[in-house]
Structures are given as structure tokens and as C-alpha cells.
Amino acid sequence: xxxxxxxxxxxxxxxxxxxxxxxxxxxxxxxxxxxxAYLEESGWPYSCYDPVSRDWxxxxxxxxxxxxxLMNEHGLHVxxxxxxxxxxxxxxxxxxDLKQMLREADLxxxxxxxxxxxxxxxxxxxxxxxxxxxxxxxxxxGARVLPDYHTHFSYGxxxxxxxxTIPTRxxxxxxTVPPVVPELWRKRDDPPHxxxxxxGGEGRVRGTGEAFTTVANWSAYGAVTYxxxxxxxxxxxxxxxxxxxxxxxxxxxxxxxxxxxxRERLRAAGWSVxxxxxxxxxxxxxxAYISGSRGEFSAAKHAYVKTxxxxxxxxxxxxxxxxxxxxxxxxxxxxxxxxxxxVLAFSSMEEAVASIxxxxxxxxxxxxxARELAERVFDYRTVLPRLLERSL
Length: 392
Known about the structure:
With 392 residues, the protein is of the alpha/beta class. 30% of the residues lie in helices and 21% in strands. It is built from twelve helices and 20 strands. The strands form five sheets. The protein has an eight-stranded mixed sheet with strand order 6-5-2-1-7-8-9-10, with helices on both faces. β11 and β12 form a beta hairpin. α1 (16-31) packs across α7 (283-291) and α11 packs parallel to α12 (380-391). The longest helix has 16 residues, at 16-31.
């Protein structure tokens, strides 16, 4: 049993998809029998999003309540501590208690690199997990503190390998993948393949669970330029696929955060569009939305694709765990992940159309393969022990 302090971004941004990206670590470590504490700090002024009022605040009262409620719902006795670095205001622990907790920890695991307390140095072992390859390495987030960690992991599984253009910054980046706790996701029995209903020579799959969906932040924090090269967000890749609904009878739905200026354009092209807040207001509604989908279809961030990062989505592993196939724009992940059944990779409009058709031609088999991949590659019982072994 290890004492692990997990740092992340749950309290400041307590919307369901973001919560689960970090909560799978906390829940997974607890289920493996480790002693876990969760610690977060402000990072920058007015960094705390309140999903109730939908505004930004300087202290996350709503986020603390949501995260603690999530812990309680799963029977976890995990301390949740928060520090406002600028004001010194704390919640969940006093300064001396915080220092003692860090001194006694076997490992500080900074997931995402958006917490930077100087007290982290009290931990005997410190590991960083890069969730945002390229943007981390070019100092959009935590690159300036890379020397403060003993071990560095990345969802950019190809960093340092031939063909990947992300700078290593002199760091040995160990590949890792998003963990998932499959028990959180309803296993979908093999459903019958619903028919495509004709509509003027083209069809649309109709009815509950018949849309391929995704939940996406349209342009996030914007593009960056590094050494004269442009690296963009997901919006650039989705716009290259704008006409996809006209090329397939399959219903496609986007649950978007942001992108208000292009929603009508997307709808005119045949995409179903809804606000991400409708499905992300709580974990239960998010789980229900994903589990009620036919599968996931999504583009990736332009930067991930351009650099051939090998990134795979923490949202996509949720679809897989729910027994639903994933069709995802290739970022180079086919270099390390078996694709073609359960997970399909595309790099062009033509490949996207063909991938949708392939899944629909043998849908039950792709559902079974999706769940098998989730359990074989992304299950917390596989991912987290490997993280600990390499960190400690």
C-alpha cells in the first residue's frame, strides 16, 4: 500500500467530463488499496469555474462541494484539500497539516501539470502526467517545472520516437494511457444493428442510441505558435470534416463547449449540435449520454494530429468501457493501439466515411471489441500499477 497525493483540475473545473479524467485515478488507486489524498491549488486568479452560476470565481466553493459529493457517492474517504496560492486561503487542511501530508506521501502524482505549489518539494517522489502533449512541452502549461519531477509520463505516447515532432525538452517521456474504471460504465449488450431509414436517397439513423456522439471543447484556449509552426485546437479538424454528414447516412452529434459562432453552420451541414452543458452538468447525466450513444465519432486537436503525438482521449476510453466503438482521428495512436475493431482511426474524409460504414456493417462485434480493449489496455488495474512501479 502506498500513500499517494493526487493533484489535478477537478475542483476548479467541476464539469463531468473533466471530473472523470482525474477521478478515474483517485477511484482506481483507492480500489487497488492505496491511501489517497486529493490536492489542488488556484494556479492563477479567478481560475475557478462555477457550473451553477456559469461564471469564474476566485475560490471554488461549488467545486469543493461537487468533488466531495462525488467521493462520498463512491464510498471514498479521500481528503480533498484546496489552496489559494495568492490569498493563502485554504480548505480541507491547514498549512502545517498540508506539509505533513506531503512529507509522509510516497508519491505526489501531478495529473495535468496545472498545480505548482512550492510545498510539492517536500514529497520524496514526484511524477508528472502530461495530458496535453505539445502544449505542455512548449510551456503552455507546466513545462517550466519539469525539473521538479523525478518521472514524466505523457498521453503523447510517441514523444521521443521517430515521426513525432513534439520537443522532448531533454526529458524522458514515458508513455501512458488514460485509466478507466469499467464498473462506472454500463456494459452494453450486443444490440441489433438498427436499419438506416431512407430519406431521399440518403438515410439517417433514427431513435435512441442511434447517433455517434462526442463531447468536445471547440477551441479550448486557442492555438499556439512554436518555432514558426502553428498548432491548433479541435475546431480546425472538425471544420475539415464539415461535410461528413452529407457523405454518410449515420446520424452524428456534437455536444459542444464553445463554438457558438459555428453551430448553425454545423447544423446546416447536417450535424446535430447541442450544448455540452446539457450533458455535463453532473456525472450521472454524462455517463447516461455516453452510454446511450451508438458510439463515438470525433476529431482530435490539430496539434496532436500534426505532431503525430500518439495521444488517445480520456473521453474515448469511457465509450470503450461502455462497450461502444470509437472512431477517432488518427494522432499516431495506431502505432501502439490495435485498430480496426472496436477502435478505428481515420486520417481523411474518405477514411472517416469508410470507418462508419465498417462499424455499422458488424456493430455487435465492434461493441464487444470495444469493451475488450477497455479491459485489456485502459483498465485501472493495468494502467495504475505500471505508473506506480515506474514512479517509485
